[in-house]
Design a protein that fits this description.
- The protein is mainly α.
- 77% of the residues lie in helices and 2% in strands.
- It has two domains: 5-100 and 126-213, Fumarate Reductase Cytochrome B subunit (Up-down Bundle), CATH 1.20.950.20; 101-125, no CATH class.
Length: 244
């Protein structure tokens, strides 16, 4: 069901901070620019490749755009690492994204639900196992693409300290990892945040940073219970202080 809580006045909770939303937008821009400028080189013999390169302004312009996008991706990733290490919010988010034994049981529980062996879905906290997997895949993929991209960008400097075969491996890994990342985003991520019937035509969280109360209860019940519990405790403490 499409989220219409922003029209009904239903209570909303912050899901993404302004910093997280900006990071997401910059990552999205750099990622799709890299795909747009990289795939024509990967599939140079395809009929559409020359047309896309022409649309981008020619091979030289494509190369410049690809490198500018790579720099943007590297800066976003570097900032994100600093954000997770140096800020309380970033550190809490990172800790919440680290897989735990419960995630394995949640996978088993979810499979049981899909096959009709469980009456309900597992209860998730701030992040479910799908979101954790996506984050770790993004982190790993970004590290691999940045490292191999630097080797390919600065070939002569890299060959001073690396053997020739490392350049060949970097080309293969960079190429196939790019295709894998593109397919993962288009097939996996886009479905969950845009094409899923529960959020179609688009989840607004990446724009507003907010999630509705009914979405919290449905998708993150453990987090919802924790937040409501803390609010109840705070109200009770305030009531006791008032009576004093």
């Amino acid at each position: 069901m499409t989220d219409l809580s922003f029209l009904t006045g239903e209570r909303r909770f912050e899901r993404l901070s302004r910093s997280q939303r900006i990071q997401h937008v910059l990552m999205m821009i750099s990622f799709f620019m890299l795909v747009l400028t990289g795939l024509p080189l990967r599939y140079y013999d395809a009929s559409w490749s020359s047309h896309l390169i022409g649309f981008l302004g020619g091979f030289t312009a494509r190369s410049v755009l690809h490198r500018v996008s790579a720099v943007l991706l590297t800066l976003v990733c570097t900032y994100h690492v600093g954000w997770t290490v140096l800020t309380d919010r970033g550190h809490r988010e990172l800790m919440a994204l680290i897989p735990k034994p419960k995630d394995l049981f949640d996978v088993i529980h979810m499979l049981g639900y899909y096959f009709g062996l469980k009456p309900d879905k597992p209860k998730f906290d701030r992040f479910n196992f799908i979101e954790k997997f996506e984050y770790l895949a993004l982190a790993w993929g970004s590290a691999v693409m940045i490292l191999t991209g630097l080797i390919l960008w600065f070939e002569e400097q890299a060959m001073v300290i690396l053997p020739k075969w490392s350049l060949d491996i970097a080309k293969v890994v960079h190429s196939y990892e790019a295709v894998l990342a593109f397919l993962a985003i288009i097939i996996w991520h886009f479905y969950h945040v845009h094409l899923n019937p529960e959020v179609f035509p688009m989840s607004r969280i990446w724009l507003t940073g907010e999630i509705s109360e009914h979405e919290m209860k449905e998708h993150h019940p453990l987090e919802y219970e924790r937040i409501v519990g803390k609010e109840r405790e705070a109200d009770e403490r305030a009531g006791i202080e008032t009576k004093r």
